[in-house]
Amino acid sequence: MESLIEKMKMFAKQNFPVAEVSSYLIDLDIPREKLEKFCHFNDGFYTRNLVHKERDFEILVVCWPAGETAPIHGHEGEKCWARVESGTLQICNYEQKSLNPLLLKRVEKVLGGPNYLDGPADIHSVENLSSDSAISLHIYARPFESCDVYNLKDNKIDRLKMQYYSKFGYLC
Question: With b meaning 16 or more CB within 10 Å and e meaning fewer, what string describes 107-146?
């Protein structure tokens, strides 16, 4: 994890060049034992586990029990990448077509297994469709405290405060 953090510091100085960051993350090899400290699951929801945070970026390990979903949400216009470390996740990327009525267009739907990289995505949803758990690594440029969640059923956008389930390997 230390080399990942140092590389992200270097990319931060360059405003996270998308092609270079993506290439680095595709080729990244993180031994399972380096992730284990940050892998905290809860059967009732997916967990956001903070690995590292500073002004320019944060690194999370997200743990997905079987069937868990992150609804359609935005990233405050910031660059972010999600890489599947284990299991399989369905990732759908969207484009906002209008606010009134709320209309999103799905532009991509991918079932990604280990080492699949998504990003940067402006608006997306993530779902563990399998009966097994999954783990993903997330890099967020310019961390944000809350984000928009797109509620298509009620035709509105809700604001959600971001929370961590664990920080630096310890439960909150």
Answer: eeeeebeeebbbbbbbbbbbbbebeebbbbbbbbbbbeee
**Ramachandran angles phi, psi of 146, nearest 5°:** -150, 165
3-state SS assignment for residue 33:
helix
Sign, Cα dihedral of 81, 123, 68, 159? positive
Give the domains, in start order, of the chain with CATH numbers.
Answer: 2-171 (2.60.120.10)
pLDDT at 77 over 80: no
Beta bridge partners of 45: 42
Distances (CA, A) of 64 to 20, 48, 73, 137, 142: 27, 9, 16, 11, 24
HSE-CB of 159 using CA atoms within 13 angstroms: 4
pLDDT tens-digit map of 13-39:
999 999 999 999 999 999 989 999 999
Q: Do 20 and 28 contact (CB within 8 A), yes or no? A: no
